[in-house]
Amino acid sequence: MSTLKTLVVLAPQPDPQHITDIAHLAEAPHLDHPHIDVVRMRGANPAHSQSVLERCRGHGYDAAFVDSGRAFADFRLLVSDMDSTLINIECIDEIADIKGIKPQVADITERAMRGELDFAAALRERVALLAGLPESALRQVYEERLKLNPGAESLLDACKRFGIKTLLVSGGFTYFTERLKADYDLDYAYANQLEIVDGKLTGRLQGEVVDAEAKKRLLVSTRDALKLKPGQVMAVGDGANDLPMLREAGVGVAYHAKPRVSAEADIAIEHGGLDAILRLFH
């Protein structure tokens, strides 16, 4: 027998008939409308989650089944991917754009994020194409192209307010993670180290590659160091290399993710910003 949950539907202006139909499909007897863009359906039956979430997606609504008594403040660690999750770009693609080879690199990035290529090999292939670029290209990307995704600042502010630790784990580069860590007061950050000699990228990495399994290991080691239970950890990502850490977390959130990732995550946000996470939990 399924444990009843709360179905939360997020939409700027939800259609009342849509909401009635969704509540009936979810067998949810209690509806709350705490905000204009949030509908909470208490007592929903998660046995119907697939058909209910498909109906919500068809209407263009974000939705998720969540534990009825859980608040965002109950989480103690938020783990986030960087590229196309916390921030709006794939940094390596924008670096490549400065060298005039973005289409070539972006194609490899897209295939790697879909899980069609070995991540480490694909990363080394792309980094090799950047050889000879001045280090100033990294600064140009950070200062001129990189922005937080919508809702990211609200999410990070909520973490600070509730004392939730933040861990940024990226298959990208430390040049960007360290600056984000400093600028937004994140607690931990890990990524790949580009080799730079005489102010130029050599086309090589230093140290081990931060791949899917490394992301998972970093989540586990940080969780254990903080003496947390798995259910106290939330992870957010968009690519296939995020799946192991999303599975390891108490709640895994796919953010504007590849179809495979959205299908496997506990929660998929496909329309709203990162602050949608805050509205899913009371």
UniProtKB/TrEMBL annotation:
GO terms for biological process: L-serine biosynthetic process. The keyword Glycoprotein does not apply. Its cofactor is Mg(2+). It is an enzyme of class 3 (hydrolase). Its EC number is 3.1.3.3. The active site is at 81 (nucleophile), 83 (proton donor). One of its GO terms (cellular component) is cytoplasm. Pfam families: Hydrolase. It catalyses: O-phospho-L-serine + H2O = L-serine + phosphate; O-phospho-D-serine + H2O = D-serine + phosphate. The keyword Cell cycle does not apply. Belongs to the HAD-like hydrolase superfamily. SerB family. This is Phosphoserine phosphatase. It comes from Chromobacterium phragmitis. The lineage of its organism: Bacteria, Pseudomonadati, Pseudomonadota, Betaproteobacteria, Neisseriales.
